[in-house]
Amino acid sequence: MSVVDLHTRRLAHSAPAAPAAPAARPAPAAPAARPAPAGSPPALRVVGTPAGRPPALRAVKPRPALRLVGTPAERAVAAAAAMVEPIGLKQLNELAELQTRVDRKYFVPAAVFRRMIAELAGELRVLDIDGRRTFGYESVYFDTPELTTYKAHVQRRRQRFKARTRTYTDTGLCMFEVKLTGARGETVKQRVPHPEQHRAELTDGALAHLRSTLGQAYQQDLPAGMQPTLVTTYRRTTFVSRTGEARLTCDSGLRALDLDNEVHDTGTHVLVESKSGGQGGSAADRILRELGIRPVSVSKYCVAVAALHPELPSNPWHQTLRRYFTPLQAAA
Predict the structure, then answer these.
(1) Cα 327 to chain center, whole Å?
(2) Cα separation values, 236 from 233, 271, 287, 291, Å
(3) What is the rounded average pLDDT of the residues 3-29?
(4) CA geometry: angle at 86 spanning 119 and 282, to 5°?
(5) Are 190 and 209 a contacting pair, CB within 8 Å?
(6) What is the CATH number of domain 70-330?
(7) Tell me: the pLDDT tens digits for 267-281?
(8) Do 77 and 237 form a contact (C-beta atoms < 8 A)?
(9) Is the predicted pLDDT of residue 62 greater than 50, yes or no?
């Protein structure tokens, strides 16, 4: 596998040497894109298909700035974050390290999102790192060539999981994560540090962590042939309650892609995940109920697979795709 630096077009990491590829065709002129923060890892495109094509990586062209900033959802998140007092990362993690929690997810219209945060502003703090309140995320998901983990979610199996690397693109910090469904439906996330330059690979350490986690939680063996399947990118702002009992992650600019195709959100709604330690939910859940917003069953990975591979079963996410995502398009 290879990681191609978008700025230098040099290989940052590679497998045994192969013949040099032809020089990349210059990209057509486009509006200036938002510059990547210092130290950001290069963007990736991951190849992994149901047909079993070998996984690989290639550079992804940055989207034009008009598709990165200024959507109703992004403006709403920026305005909401400005209403709330800041909290640092260390303080936030000490206050609310919710790795076992109950999640509720909502697609919230931009105007409703602003209203919700305005009502809760006195009860919340917003993650702030060096003056930034919105941060870039990149996830590389792993599955078998037959998409075994995706199909387990479609079939609503009790013992299901997702495996991914998550890179915080503003800092380059990378983690390997396994997300499980607990006995009472709660989400359990187990994660370990992962080398950023190998974020599209299952290293020996990642495989050992995945094997151990599945064995302890489900008495399940590691599925054969796990490989990178797709990439998602988005921007996230995180709010936490002053008591530490609840956390809100608020995502916009969601994009999913593989070698051939890509899909992105419409920019009109914020994907809000309300994470709390109990079944009763948080104040945000209560306000959203009062405003007529109902939780949805949605997984970024499953929605991405369903969007990128319309030939696969995807009934649970048809409505989500129609309402909140653009039609499938050829990769840029």
Answers:
(1) 19
(2) 10, 9, 21, 23
(3) 37
(4) 40
(5) yes
(6) 2.40.320.10
(7) 999 999 998 866 667
(8) yes
(9) no
